Amino acid sequence: MRHLIAILLTALLAACQTGPYPVDSPFYEIPVGSRLILKRPLEFPPDTVSITFGQGPSASYWSGADDTCTFQLYRKSDQAQRVEPDSFEIVKVSRSSNRFASAPAPTGWVRVGIGAGAGGGPSRYFYETNLFLRSEKQPNVYLMACEHVWWTSDSVFRARHMTVAEIRAILGDTFSLELAGP
What we know:
The chain has two helices and nine strands, in the order H-E-E-E-E-E-E-E-E-H-E. By secondary structure, it is mainly beta. The strands form two sheets. A seven-stranded antiparallel β-sheet has the order 3-4-8-7-6-1-9, covered by helices on one side. Strands 2-5 form a two-stranded antiparallel sheet.
């Protein structure tokens, strides 16, 4: 009987294993050791530590872009900063998701709804992939944070992390992403 329980427990645990996902899957995790290659210089205005790419050459979530990638520096300066073309090693990858509810409808409004976001505007789900970067030549370079945003007015079941192809499309001809081998 013990052997049967051990075999069933092993089979149950094996069924919970997540396998390697194909590169076009939102479940695929960019491997450490991959490289983010900056193809042209980037100018950071004074008192700025980030440049956001999205719908258009430079956008942000607040401008209505649902998918963005933000290139970030460690230190802010009162002078403009320039990042030169370089190959940045991805030394750590993290993924997270957060839900932000919208404000409730004003008093006196009829609030009708089912599920997340009911009673206010739609909630937002943020799926973020953080690529922590390192360069010996440019130690002030910190992170590329790519965010996929879903509104609950869309189907919450479509909320997911960005794929490698979507990240590459947002970064356009400014960056290339080279994945490390298996």
